[in-house]
Design a protein that fits this description.
The protein is an alpha+beta fold. Helix content is 51%, strand content 13%. Strand 2 and strand 3 form a beta hairpin. The chain is globular, with a radius of gyration of 21 Å.
């Protein structure tokens, strides 16, 4: 059993910064090339007592959260990890979000059981919802799960996709729909039809299809297709009340963290560009100066956006924070993509040839920003301003 470390808030950032610089960044190329889960990175987080960010201090975690006046600290950690490897940051996001749901919605017995596994053994959690109902070319069957209720629990059949950390996680919080396929994002019917179930991923009825995951970027997030063949989940593994995830708009608490990851990628591109420019002795080129100035402004603006929405959460202005979070998600995506583009222009074609980290950053950011359609996101922001009906969690057309 690992000894719990007493870490002051200021120490967690210095520890993480050293860790990402000395260990995460050098390993990023390996995870990308082999499409493999960043196991060693999570082992290192566990070793330093940084692997339970959103677990309450009472249970051995760092105690970070939207309702604890410190959510900006979590996003700062996310940005630092993303600077080294955006794929690891994606897995970290899912882990932190799953633990946040447990910390806020789980029973005391559930917290004692599952948090002990995280704090003392290094268990890794994730959240899986994705069940897109539209087929893509070449797809023979719709993706989705069906749920059967028994006297003692639920039986799950079917599949989910975009299941980040699939081959590395210990437990998954499954968002499933009792009334049919769709998970949470694509669910129809009443909100109460969506429930959350903790699934032990060592169960032999759960299998992973890595052939589904051959993306251009974010390869280390191992977001496989996961199949469930009569997977049994007991009632005691249900997290929260039916519909609570949708009714309480939990997704809105996580939206700014995507922006924090985008920002990490942008910062890494900026730092690489500055180093490249210095080596090439191009500081006096006025076009380079323009690019550098714009990158610096973009990154500073992104920090200000995240700072502002964090303040709203800290002040318990929940409705305002939820709405501003969508603006942050949209605007930081634009700023990050622009920054990477400026870095590529400043460094030239060689920066897009391996082993340049800018080549990987460009691929990762391109894929991850498509996690949501920014056109739908922008329309959602416009709808909210105009007083039109809108879905600020999933940006669906109503």
């Amino acid at each position: 059993m690992r000894q719990k470390l007493k870490i002051k808030p200021i120490d967690q950032f210095s520890l993480l910064k050293k860790l990402t610089r000395e260990e995460f960044a050098p390993r990023a190329k390996q995870y990308d090339a082999t499409y493999s889960f960043p196991k060693e990175n999570f082992e290192a987080l566990f070793r330093l007592g940084l692997n339970a960010p959103t677990v309450s201090v009472e249970f051995g975690g760092l105690g970070l959260g939207n309702n604890k006046e410190n959510i900006r600290d979590l996003w700062t950690m996310t940005t630092e990890i993303a600077k080294a490897d955006m794929a690891t940051a994606r897995c970290w996001e899912g882990h932190a979000n799953a633990l946040m749901l447990l910390d806020n919605l789980g029973t005391y017995i559930q917290k004692e059981k599952w948090f002990a596994g995280v704090v003392n053994k290094g268990d890794i959690w994730t959240v899986w919802s994705g069940e897109p109902l539209l087929k893509i070319p070449g797809q023979t069957a719709k993706i989705g799960t069906t749920i059967t209720t028994t006297n003692t629990g639920y039986i799950i059949n079917g599949s989910k996709v975009f299941c980040s950390s699939a081959s590395g996680a210990t437990w998954a919080n499954l968002l499933v729909n009792l009334e049919g396929s769709g998970g949470a994002r694509h669910a129809d019917g009443s909100p109460e039809s969506v429930i959350m179930l903790a699934c032990d991923l060592s169960d032999s009825s759960v299998t992973f299809d890595d052939s589904w995951w051959k993306p251009m970027g974010m390869r280390g997030s191992v977001s496989y297709k996961v199949n469930f063949n009569n997977t049994f989940i007991p009632f005691e593994n249900q997290i929260g009340a039916p519909g609570q995830f949708l009714l309480d708009e939990w997704q809105t608490r996580w939206i700014p963290q995507y922006a924090a990851t985008f920002l990490g990628g942008a910062e890494a591109a900026y730092e690489y560009a500055l180093s490249h420019i210095e080596k090439q002795q191009r500081q006096h080129d006025p076009f380079i100066q323009h690019r550098v100035g714009k990158m610096a402004l973009n990154i500073q603006s992104a920090y200000m956006w995240l700072d502002q929405v964090a303040r709203l959460w800290d002040e318990n202005k929940i409705n305002e924070a939820q709405s501003l979070g969508n603006m942050v998600r949209y605007q930081v995506e634009q700023l990050a993509c622009q920054t990477v583009e400026h870095a590529i222009h400043a460094c030239g074609a060689r920066s897009l040839i391996q082993p340049s980290p800018l080549e990987r950053i460009s691929r990762d950011l391109t894929l991850y920003t498509r996690h949501d359609n920014d056109d739908q996101l922008l329309a959602t922001i416009g709808k909210s301003i105009l007083g039109e009906s809108h879905d600020r969690s999933f940006f669906k057309t109503k």
